[in-house]
């Protein structure tokens, strides 16, 4: 009776396993990843906000990427942790709608911000004398507004078309969150074609974004290779290679996830792919961007030293 009620009023997320021990292990692993992701991205947001040396457009966009990453991982992971700990995969219809909206909005916003960041690197390296004019603060602000606005439009399109279909099958989702391809499998008519149309349109736009980023990096690398000093080439590559890796990794896993056929019994490979594009990018981005960036590492050391100095002053004042 409970199962019938759940499948009538909401959806059942099957998650990763029915074995209780594996559910607890999954919850603990996701919790550790979630806390580390929050710590890493919160540090980047803090130092790019407080440190006056990190007020260039590159770090302004990096700060918004970290905000997106924190939001992105918070859409799916806490719900999955709760479902595993309580051994209850139920998610209400309204919760599923919100999850689809925020997930699709943030996926597109990530693609958009990574495209903007590639253009920023192109302008900085290929047109250094005109960089401040090309990427002045007002243009950067409007670019970020466009990123968030385009993400919201994408989310609205996906959500309205997805939940306009008639779900006539058992509302069982073979995933750890409300995945759009899995939801489409619950339809018994052709009304899912509207979602396919939206997905096709957004895929074309994403391909255009990726192509423009690739062309930007072709110009960047050709310019960098003409830099006479090895130090200059190393500095340019250190700011470009992490971004290129992040963009390629994020888009390739999303494309692989949406192109592969959905299965009633997902394999380990299917689940790993879903983790790669939902959990790993937000967790890895702070590491990738900070390890090869001396300015961020220096700002972090300064933040730690300032914090230690403040604590010492407080301790001495109490003494």
TrEMBL record:
It is found in: Cell membrane. The keyword rRNA-binding does not apply. Its main location: membrane. It holds the Pfam family 7tm_4. Residues 40-289 form the G-protein coupled receptors family 1 profile domain. The keyword Membrane applies. One of its GO terms (molecular function) is G protein-coupled receptor activity. PROSITE patterns: G_PROTEIN_RECEP_F1_1, G_PROTEIN_RECEP_F1_2. The chain crosses the membrane at residues 24-47, 97-119, 140-158, 192-218, 239-259, 271-291. GO terms for cellular component: plasma membrane. Keywords: Cell membrane, G-protein coupled receptor, Membrane, Olfaction, Receptor, Sensory transduction, Transducer, Transmembrane, Transmembrane helix. It is a multi-pass membrane protein. Belongs to the G-protein coupled receptor 1 family. This is Olfactory receptor. The lineage of its organism: Eukaryota, Metazoa, Chordata, Craniata, Vertebrata.
